[in-house]
Amino acid sequence: MSGILRAELLKVLRRPMTWIALAIVLAILATVQSLLIVLAFLPTPEGTGDDQAGPARLFVELTVLPGGLANGLNFLPGLGIFALAVVAASVAGSEFSWGTVVPLFARGADRRAVILAKLLALALVTVIWLLATFILAFVLSAAASLIHLGQIPLDWLNFDMVQELAIGMGRSLLAMLPYLAAAVALALLFRSPAIAMAVVLGYIIVEEVGLAALTALRPIAGGGLGQLIGLVDAAAIGANADRLTGLNTLALSPLAQGTAIEHPYRAALILVAYTVLFAILAILALRSRDITFRPA
């Protein structure tokens, strides 16, 4: 298993797409953070006082330490998941188009072990991406603190906060695992990274738009429709992922103080269940495929 894991990890790390996609994600994060820093210089609306109240104060809290670190933890499960899903589908689907899966099974590799190793390798790469986005967010937040506060505050940095940041990375990772497992499962099921990308990315987009619409309708919906909206909100991958990333914002951003996150432990269990379900689907998809071994 360790040898297969090393091989799968090398496959992902040696793919230019892995690092090109990460560079794009970091560039977008830097652009968004820089824009928020600039927006903090917006003039304060009349009647709000002279203490940076209103929109300007909001943008300051979103960018300085420690509030800006929430963007580093949550950016990847939010916008960055599109890039990660593409990488995951490409890694799994290209096994058939490139024919690299044939010599692997010719050496007697267990198909279940290959799937688990592939998912673990993608999870490790996701951790690398998370560390990269977090480091960039820290640097940008430190710069924002110098600009807006005239100093880099570190009084918030203690053992409890370090522990919270580590847990926050775990939350962000768990929020992305179902999408990665789904991309792998669909790529193996259809033997096509393009189909897997289309389905997963399409689902994410529909989910984002649909959940926003359902959230807007929920206060006025009643009866069966209200129950249906509640069921969708409780079961959707994105809604449960948002609950976990919301805990990151609650722990780091002063703006989120007093916000209640409903059923975070249930959300974590649902995301684990989705990940296991898609992993099983990937194993079954690979086992059902007739891999042709060509004679030397």
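Above is the first protein from milestone M3; the second protein from the same milestone is given next.
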Amino acid sequence: MNNRDLNLHSFVLNCGFKEEDIISIKNDASFRKYYRIKNKNLIVMDAPPEKGESIEQFRTVADIIHSFNLNAPQIISSDTKHGFMLLEDFGQTSFSNILNKDNESELYKKAVEVLIEINRQSKSKEKELSKLKSYSIDFLVNESLLFIDWYLEKRKGELVSNDQKKEFIQILSDFYNNIKPQSSTLVLRDYHVDNLFYLNNQKSLRQVGLIDFQDAVIGSPLYDLASLLEDVRRPLKINLKKKLLEFYIKTINTNVQDAEREMRFFSIQRNLKILGIFCRLSIRDKKDSYLKYLPNTVKLIRKNLKDPFFINLVNWLKQFKNHELI
């Protein structure tokens, strides 16, 4: 038994439970691990600080979500030094577990309504949001370089010069500066059906339980909408996506063409990053299960690159032959 396990068991004991009370559950693509407490609506989050995980950031964002009167897990106990938290367990009713053809439209609309509420509430919560990093163009570009490092170079074997990387950075920066996205909204960053729970014992928007938000930032509300509607794990039918986007645009009363283009930009940026992350998980971390999503990721990027606004990125990609993005 290693030191991490010993610290975990010590934390569990301090919370009033036994070592045999915890059950490991499926983990995500991060360094975090999760354990259920038997016969209790409780989960232990194991977020090792030495791997860059921060339970204090989770607490900060959870407090912000609660201040919006939205639903994040209640924090029961924590050990900041070692990176453990005892949390309310939302159970098994994630959207991805319960979605079917009968409830799909209703659940997605509820998820969009939560984003609309986050956008509305963010306008009066500057003090709370000031604790978070800004999702600046430098931040976005740095993420997008994962696409070059891990997809183009390491997976596809392309050679990308420093000058080509600088050109790529400039192209994305020009897109961002031309679009001029709103940049003062809480952005959860992994807003998709795996991280949303339907809570039947709650009312209104609190029926949507939010998890995996510790990397939240301040940025454009269209980022999380792109994350939800252009999710490579669960592609939406065109008609439903169009209906949800129209509902969002009409509700927040924004320009249709501007909103559509901004969402395309964030979808492209996010999915370029995802290509890099999924390849890194396979090559570096020996986690191949995410490779099955590469075709959907490529398909979404290709679709959005058809907008002539993004021609400079299309031309940049033409320098490289060993990919399927154009």
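Note on the second protein: The chain has a mean pLDDT of 95.
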